Amino acid sequence: MSTQPVRGTRDLLGDDYAKCSYLNRVAFDILAAYGYQGIETPIFEHTSLFQRGLGETSDVVGKEMYTFADRGGDSLTLRPEGTAPVTRAIISAGLTQTLPQKLFYSGPMFRYERPQKGRYRQFYQLGVEYIGSAHPLADVECIALADHLLKAWGISDYQLHLNTLGDLESRQNYRQALVDYFGRYKNDLSPDSQIRLEKNPLRILDSKDANDQVLCQDAPLFDEYLTEDSRHFFDQVQNGLVTLGIDFTRNQKLVRGLDYYCHTAFEFKTNSLGAQDAILAGGRYDGLMQQLGGPVVPAVGWACGLDRLALMLTDFKTPDHLKIALIAAEEGLEPISLKFAQQLRHVCVPCEVFLKGDLSKRLKAADKAGCQVAVLLRPEEYQSNQVKIRYLQQDFSPAGDKETIVSISDLVPHLLSLKKA
């Protein structure tokens, strides 16, 4: 038996856990300000949900999904992404009659990929879905929310890349142009891209194969095949970003890796993580709801990898919260120290009761545990309804004293004042 985690997974401990918690904590407050409500979907779904939603030619479906048969013989898949499950949930709950819906999720996803720095087979993703609005300004708001979050997390080393995938007519025209172009080089394409040429040639533009990328350099550009409606939609998105003062780079070769995207596509990229440069990505996906058996409903959203974002929190420090040590000098006072601890915990003051060793050892243990203040219960003070406060870190001493005596009735207010300071 191995005591190591499975390859591509990890235990979140210490600063790693603190960073992910910090990202979520900051995000949840900002998401509420934008009107988003949380949703949590099951970790596994019917495999057909992702086959239909993501497209069978996608790398995710073809190579990366964790799929298994349960004891009843049903084919199930650990969720590789969040958009298809959220869309399924909207249909399941009958919420298509109460649109728009603004939802966010945060939790583990699963893909069988080659593990790299910041990329795991079980990874953590935060995403938003704005379902029910066809207006280009919904796209602008989604992008603005992403930009707001990155800045709130203290992340500044990124650039917004923006493109349009057009409407259905635009994509059909562009598809034929790509078939005509790449068809001349079919034998030079990678095996995967030869399959994409038949089923979804747009995916060739997203190929990671070096030879495919060379061929893509001279491929037709989407702009030549956009309808007037698509151009007008994209103009409104760009103008909206300019109005909000959000800088972006037009990237005509930016495509999304899943079948349900149309119109706006965007990625926030960074130079600080090596080859894994995308930290947040998304776009519009007006056809997904219908693909999954629901009505035609427009939608836009994005997702970001918390594992990768955590690597960018280079100046992150675990906040120094006030932590109190409760130490009894005699065995008979130990239950009283626990009683005081419960009073403090009920007003959300972190504290620990130290029960091992003599007074000196308990004080050393409290200091090692990061306690800044110790409450000492000794018979001489306790008989007079008092306790001794010892400031293990002088920064927490109101008057710069090493110790002070306070009455038991004033104990909690005194410690709360230290917390506030």
How would you describe what is shown here?
This protein has about 425 residues and is an alpha+beta fold. It folds into 2 domains: about 15-165 and about 225-310, BirA Bifunctional Protein, domain 2 (2-Layer Sandwich); about 325-420, 3-Layer(aba) Sandwich (Rossmann fold), CATH 3.40.50.800. About 35% of the residues lie in helices and about 20% in strands. The protein has helices at about 15-35, 45-55, 60-65, 85-90, 135-150, 170-185, 190-200, 210-215, 230-245, 290, 305-310, 335-345, 360-370, 380, 410-420; strands at about 35-40, 45, 65-70, 75-80, 100-110, 120-130, 160-165, 250, 260-270, 280-285, 300-305, 325-330, 350-355, 375, 385-390, 405.
Q: How is this fold's topology laid out?
A:
Elements: H1 14-33, E1 37-38, E2 44-46, H2 47-54, H3 59-64, E3 67-69, E4 75-78, H4 83-92, E5 101-110, E6 122-131, H5 136-152, E7 159-164, H6 168-183, H7 191-199, H8 210-216, H9 228-243, E8 249-250, E9 262-269, E10 278-284, H10 288-291, E11 299-305, H11 306-311, E12 324-328, H12 334-346, E13 351-354, H13 359-368, E14 373-377, H14 379-382, E15 386-391, E16 403-407, H15 411-420
Parallel strand pairs: 1-5, 7-8, 12-13, 12-14
Antiparallel strand pairs: 2-4, 3-4, 5-6, 6-11, 7-9, 9-10, 10-11, 14-15, 15-16
Helix pairs in contact: 1-5, 5-9
Subcellular location: Cytoplasm
Protein name: Histidine--tRNA ligase
Keywords: Aminoacyl-tRNA synthetase, ATP-binding, Cytoplasm, Ligase, Nucleotide-binding, Protein biosynthesis
